[in-house]
Design goal:
single chain, 692 residues, Rossmann fold, Topoisomerase I, domain 2, Topoisomerase I, domain 3, six-stranded antiparallel barrel, four-stranded antiparallel beta sheet, 33% helix
Length: 692
């Protein structure tokens, strides 16, 4: 029997760590929490100092029994759950269940699962951090008091299965507020004038700025005509040329939030998927015996810190100098820690920059490799020198009418040789070169084009935009972003349309009720302050019971008022205008987990349901009788098929077009990727120019 028992959270980690520690250590997995608040009841006694009622989680009894059995035989027990609040709470519960003194040196934490990091962490065990435990306990108790009081109220007044969490309700309100902004938006007309200038054989573009150096807004076509009438001829004089050298710093290494945002932009990953794959990379991948076996490839993926260890910096420094040259080495003067960050551990980075993504192709899945490559490149770029750009801005005049043009070109790539951060804008970032222009020169205009525009409403939230906004406002913490977004979708409060959140009628009803009876629950400032108060528990500045008590007294009063005064909301089913083919009763639209669907109004006598099929105006190319409709797979991916299914089995991932191929008369489809849409023939090599 091994002398030492080590308890981690997952079996994947257990195997790896046991191999690193050797024969004297037995490593077992708790499979996450083994002790928690009960699911079937509140589990918090508000009358007795908010005392939590902890129980062994259903299904975890055998795991706890096995751990107790192993603990009795071990000389020493080490609790090595994840290095965050949840991990500390798991360790605390295990200590009490296994009769381990929480003040003894029983707690081991590590930020990466590598041989060196694991061995070093076992040289420096510590006692359980009770402030960290209290911080987790406070959040858990607070969420119970909110969720387990408001949710049953919503079941009674609206419908069963609803919930109103502390963070999810604010996120939902943000989505609804944005939708209201869009609906209330009134577009305003404005104009621009774009010109193409020519200098010798080179052309460049410029935009109207104003008159006599004063910026002028163009709000109508008559304004444009007035400007065009002022122009004397096609010649413009270069009035002013400003040349500068601009430095562009690399992005900081990833935090949980920035990783989720960038994975959405560049890899098209949902937040939940990003965190699932990151967990796999953190817990360890089998690299093969010659490469060290199962090894963690990235550091811990729940963090709001951009700090990097000195060891990692030194390794990156050596790699950069060796691979690119010393001129590409950064000074890291831009490395600052977010004031709101807990800075409990490092940024997300590769455990070794020497493990290049290309070297791992054989052992990683496609999605693991893509995410690892993103993390590796971001970290390496963060340690590299700034890029240097030569910029030029030019003022051109014709009869005091002023146009301006700007351009830049990369003088020294620096970090851009490895990685450039993505943006939420659809526009591609490209260098815009200007010819060699000097003051006093004359250039001709090839074209002058007035363009009418209308102001656009703010865009709906994508997952990336919502995570970024929540982080900026101080709503939620790294571990809450992905589950929050998942919950509001599972509850049917929002749907995704073109990867953007659209609130449902149900979501809007819930927020209106919360706004009336529990305004603080959906107030951004209140929630952000509460997050900071909860963080202060972690710092040991305040007792967790006091924070809960300050909140609960006012909340309890509102709850009593809501119980008495909240009206019952009846959500009527919307008639679909068609009859059920099974019983003849009218079909209605109902709201489900994945949005609206058709159901028979004679439920429960008739249980006929069907998806809402969206026709695309194309006759089925296979049977020539049915129509092609848009469908969704079990994983919610859009595909196209015949509405006569199962009689006709035509399906296509690519959207069919109504017009035939001009070359062979076969089916044309739209092939989409992140950057473009291209029309291609399914039979021959015909292609049409790509569209942005």
């Amino acid at each position: 029997m091994a002398d030492y028992l080590v308890i981690v959270e997952s079996p994947a980690k257990a195997k790896t760590i046991e191999r690193y520690l050797g024969k004297k250590y037995k490593v077992k997995a708790s499979m996450g929490h083994v002790i928690d608040l009960p699911k079937s009841q509140m589990g918090v006694d508000a009358e007795e100092g908010y005392k939590p009622k902890y129980i062994t989680i259903r299904g975890k009894g055998d795991i706890l029994k096995d751990l107790k059995k192993s603990a009795k035989k071990a000389k020493k027990i080490y609790l090595a759950a994840d290095p965050d609040r949840e991990g500390e709470a798991i360790a605390w519960h295990l200590a009490h269940a296994l009769n381990v003194d929480e003040n003894s040196k029983c707690r081991v934490v590590f930020n990466e699962i590598t041989k060196e990091a694991i061995k070093e962490s076992f040289k420096n065990p510590r006692s359980i951090d009770t402030d960290l435990v209290d911080a987790q306990q406070a959040r858990r108790v607070l969420d119970r008091l909110v969720g387990y009081n408001i949710s049953p109220l919503l079941w009674k007044k609206v419908k069963k299965g609803l919930s109103a969490g502390r963070v999810q309700s604010v996120a939902l309100k943000m989505i609804i507020d944005r939708e209201n902004e869009i609906n209330q938006f009134k577009p305003e007309e404005y104009w621009s004038i774009e010109a193409e200038f020519q200098k010798d054989k080179e052309t460049f573009e410029g935009s109207f700025y104003g008159i006599d150096g004063k910026k002028l807004e163009l709000s109508s076509e008559s304004d444009v005509k007035d400007i065009l009438n002022k122009l004397v001829d096609k010649k413009f004089t270069i009035d002013k040329v400003t040349k500068k050298e601009r430095r562009r710093n690399p992005a900081k290494p990833f935090t949980t939030s920035s990783l989720q945002q960038e994975a959405a932009r560049k890899l098209n990953f949902r937040a939940k998927k990003t965190m699932m794959i990151a967990q796999q990379l953190y817990e360890g991948i089998d690299l093969g015996k010659s490469a060290g076996g199962i090894t963690g490839l990235i550091t811990y993926m729940r963090t709001d810190s951009t700090r990097i260890s000195n060891t990692a910096k030194e390794e990156a420094k050596g790699y950069i100098v060796d691979k690119f040259g010393s001129e590409f080495l950064g000074s890291n003067t831009n490395e600052k820690v977010n004031e709101k960050a807990q800075d409990a551990h490092e940024a997300i980075r590769p455990t070794s920059v020497m493990r290049e993504p290309n070297s791992l192709k054989a052992v990683l899945s496609r999605e693991q490799l893509r995410l690892y490559k993103l993390i590796w490149e971001r970290f390496l770029a963060s340690q590299m020198a700034p890029a240097v750009l030569d910029t030029m801005s030019v003022t051109l005049k014709n009869n005091n009418v002023e146009f301006r043009s700007t351009g830049s070109k990369v003088k020294f790539k620096g970090f851009m040789k490895v990685y450039v951060e993505g943006t939420d804008d659809d526009k591609k970032q490209e260098d815009k070169y200007l010819p060699n222009l000097e003051e006093g020169m004359s250039v001709n205009t090839n074209e002058i084009n007035p363009n009418q525009h209308f102001t656009q409403p703010p865009p709906r939230f994508t997952e990336a935009r919502l995570v970024k906004t929540m982080e900026e406002l101080g709503i939620g913490r790294p571990s809450t972003y992905a589950p929050t977004l998942d919950t509001i979708q599972r509850r049917g409060y929002v749907t995704l349309d073109n990867k953007r959140f659209v609130p449902s009628e149900l979501g809007t009803i819930v927020i209106e009720l919360l706004k009336e009876f529990f305004p603080e629950i959906i107030d951004v400032e209140f929630t952000a302050k509460m997050e900071n108060d909860l963080d202060s528990i972690e710092e040991g500045e305040v007792q967790w019971v006091n924070i809960i008590d300050d909140f609960y007294h006012g909340f309890k009063k509102r709850l009593n008022v809501a119980e008495e005064e909240m009206d019952k909301v009846e959500i009527k089913d919307e008639p679909a205008g068609i009859d059920c083919e099974n019983c003849g009763h009218e079909m209605v639209y109902k709201m489900g987990r994945y949005g609206k669907f058709l159901a028979c109004s004679n439920f429960p006598e008739c249980r006929n349901t069907k998806p809402i099929l969206k026709e695309i105006g194309v006759t089925c190319p296979k049977c020539k009788e049915g129509n092609v409709v848009e469908r969704k797979s079990k994983k919610r991916r859009v595909f196209f098929g015949c509405d006569r299914f199962p009689e006709c089995d035509f399906v296509s991932w690519d959207k069919p077009l109504s017009r035939p191929c001009p070359k062979c008369e076969s089916l044309l489809v739209e092939k989409r990727n992140k950057k473009e849409t291209q029309i291609v023939c399914t039979n021959c090599d015909y292609k049409e120019d790509s569209q942005g």
